[in-house]
Amino acid sequence: MQNTQPSTFFWNQLVIPFDPGESIAAALLRSGVFRLGAAVGGLQGRYFCGIGNCQACLVCVDGGSPVEACLTPAQPGMRLTPALQAGSPPWGTS
Questions:
Q1: Are 86 and 18 in contact (CB under 8 A)?
Q2: Which GO terms fall under molecular function for this chain's record (predicted)?
Q3: Boundaries of domain holding 59
Q4: Is position 93 within any domain?
Q5: What is the pTM for the complete model shown?
Q6: Tens-binned pLDDT, residue by residue, of the chain (94 aa)
């Protein structure tokens, strides 16, 4: 018997279902999550180019370094947070 329940990950304590092979960004969009972090330089963190070039969709996985949500496959149990929190400096600056 095949398991028909979708796999899930966590976005800021919110449970997000995803299909096998789906990117983090695609699963978040399908679940109605459009803002992926604080505005930096006047731009809101979000899904934009879909190819990792703009890096507007950076998220942290399990407290690690930022990854592009549009390129990173979703995995069961991941705990995701915005790469930039309100009031934090842009990534890579001191």
A1: no
A2: iron-sulfur cluster binding; oxidoreductase activity
A3: 7-82
A4: no
A5: 0.81
A6: 566 677 999 999 999 999 999 999 999 999 999 988 876 666 678 888 888 888 889 999 999 999 999 999 999 999 999 987 644 555 444 4
